[in-house]
Structures are given as C-alpha cells and as structure tokens.
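Slide 14.
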Amino acid sequence: MASIEQRLSELGVSLPTPAAPLANYVPYARSGNQIVISGQLCLNEQGKLAYTGKLGANVSNEQGKEAARFCAINVLAQLRAAIGDLSQVSRCVRLGGFINADPSFVDLAYVMNGASDFMVDVFGDKGRHARSTVGVAALPLDAAVEVEAVFEIQ
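Slide 15: predicted structure.
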C-alpha cells in the first residue's frame, strides 16, 4: 500500500492545521501505544464549520455524511500532530460519533459512515475499527457532527 501521505494525496485530502481545543482539555493524549483523539468538529478546509444544525431537520443525510468525513480528516490532523508520521499507525481501534440529531432521526449509522469509510479509504484494513454512534441534543458551536478516535501506534 502507498504511504499514508500518498494515499491522502490520491484522495485529494490535505490535512489542515489541527484545531485548538475549545475548552479545558488536550486535543490528544498518549497512553502506552495508544493515542486518544478528542472529539473533532466538522471543520472544512477553511477552518469553518461545514455544517451546523440538526440531522433530520436542517441538515440532510448526505451533508451529515460529509460532515463526518470532515471530522475524520480533522482527527487525522490531530493524530499527525501527536505522532508526526502517520505511517506509525498500526490500526484505527475505535471511532465514536456524535450526531446532532432531531429526536426522530434514525439514520445515525449512515451519517457516521462518512468517518468510517474515510478511515478505511486511508488505512485499508488497518482502518477497520470498533464504533459507537449516538444522536445528541446539541454539540459545541451547533456542529452537525463530532468524531473522537483511538489509534494504536508502533
């Protein structure tokens, strides 16, 4: 498989400068050979929220899936800041997705596939992961989606 940086380039993705935390927490923490990435919002290439509001109300399923992909891109930006070289990733262990959802919205898994599919596109089989996806009443800055992650590194 091509290097992770090459694969990102093939996908047309340039990792942004990692976003600063919004409150009193760190963007990532290392414990042994695991890196835990704090929840990342759906910031686009310009560092602005790509989508705000609720899935099932004013954000479509496709927009939500794209928002989850933006979150995953920002997760990898934080991961690269944490370890320097993404080739050190042994695997994506877990993704956690939070979907800002109308109470009647049930397509949470479809939306979160935007992040899951991206991890597999980037890392191949090493990108397959355990996952939780939950609908929530609100997210910081009214973001449509937030994604957190755990990676194992060499």
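Speaker note: Residues 4-153 form a domain with the 60s Ribosomal Protein L30; Chain: A; fold (CATH 3.30.1330.40).
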